[in-house]
């Protein structure tokens, strides 16, 4: 009586093929669960501000430059969006979204 043993290369191919599909599925599912924070500039009476939204709900509405003693809006839309981008980056890293004066200097925000 002879017993035919399966070819080991068959199992190796099957293993790698299944591993590829499982890895692809896990990657795809992790990407689809990650929601993106949306930034948008807003025009104020004295300049610019920004909003940060998640699933069409505004989380942060900032009409004044944070971390300075004056109550002053951003002088340009670009400055407002730079700071909004920094805040989103901090939120994505699960750290405090507060903005310091040093952050404003590094981003070259006109104060």
Task: Supply the key terms.
three-stranded antiparallel β-sheet, DUF4907 domain-containing protein, DUF4907, 111 residues, 17% strand, alpha+beta
Briefly say what this structure is.
43% of the residues lie in helices and 17% in strands. It has helices spanning 8-33, 77-92, 101-106, and strands spanning 38-43, 48-54, 57-62.
Describe the structure.
InterPro entries: DUF4907 (IPR032593). It holds the Pfam family DUF4907. This is DUF4907 domain-containing protein. With 111 residues, this protein is an alpha+beta fold. The chain has a domain at 38-106. The chain contains 3 helices and 3 strands. It has helices at residues 8-33, 77-92, 101-106, and strands spanning 38-43, 48-54, 57-62. A 3-stranded antiparallel β-sheet has the order 1-2-3, covered by helices on one side. The protein is elongated, with a radius of gyration of 25 Å.
Strand content: 15-25%
Structural class: alpha+beta
Q: Cα distance, first to last residue?
A: 89 Å
Please report the number of helical segments.
3
Strand order of the largest sheet: 1-2-3
Task: Calculate Rg over CA atoms.
Answer: 25 Å
State the shape: elongated
Largest sheet: 3 strands, antiparallel
Roughly what is the average pLDDT, rounded to an integer? 81
- Number of DSSP E strands: 3
Order of helices and strands: HEEEHH
Please estimate the helix content. 40-55%
Which segments are poorly predicted (pLDDT under 50) over 5 or more consecutive residues?
A: none
